[in-house]
Design brief:
With 158 residues, this protein is of the alpha+beta class. It is 20% helix and 30% strand. It contains two helices and nine strands. The chain is rod-shaped, with a radius of gyration of 34 Å.
């Protein structure tokens, strides 16, 4: 320093900021790590979206399903309605019946387990049911799941 000549001391330069090496843009994290994380988030989002689309089952009435026309063929849906009186036909492996919502009627076939409560009459009518399956081009609803709805006062007869 030049203090002996009567000159004020020269301030030293501020410390230089550490330079971030190329390829480390954000907080010193490598660019490849950021890209990999972003790719992982996009992949997980895609998987969630596609699984929701394939497993989502829409709830319709018989009239709403039939109003869709041929666009409804092959779509997985839940259909709600009442079993038409006298329409139940059973054999060792199949169950067939008509389902109505009061405005339209559709034939339903079901293969597999039938709930024990299916087919009981209460107050002069069959219970409401919900069937899950697909509507075919033949105009038949092929149910893979059959759910019987009953009121809260369901009790065994004395």
């Amino acid at each position: 320093m030049a203090t002996h000549l009567g000159l004020p001391p020269v301030p030293s330069a501020p410390p230089a900021e550490p330079s971030i090496p190329a390829g480390r843009p954000l907080g010193g994290v490598p660019l490849k790590l950021w890209l990999g994380g972003a790719l992982l988030v996009v992949a997980i989002g895609y998987l969630v979206l596609t699984s929701l689309q394939t497993s989502a089952v829409y709830y319709l009435t018989v009239g709403e399903l039939l109003a869709r026309g041929s666009a409804a063929y092959g779509q997985a849906v839940r259909l709600s309605g009442e079993v038409v009186d006298g329409s139940i036909q059973r054999d060792s492996q199949h169950l067939r019946f008509l389902l109505t919502d009061g405005t339209a009627t559709i034939p339903v076939t079901h293969t597999g387990q039938v709930p024990d409560l299916f087919g009981y009459r209460a107050e002069g009518a069959y219970q409401d049911v919900v069937v899950e399956g697909r509507y075919t081009a033949d105009g038949v609803f092929e149910a893979r799941t059959l759910i019987v709805k009953h009121g809260p006062t369901f009790e065994a007869a004395p």
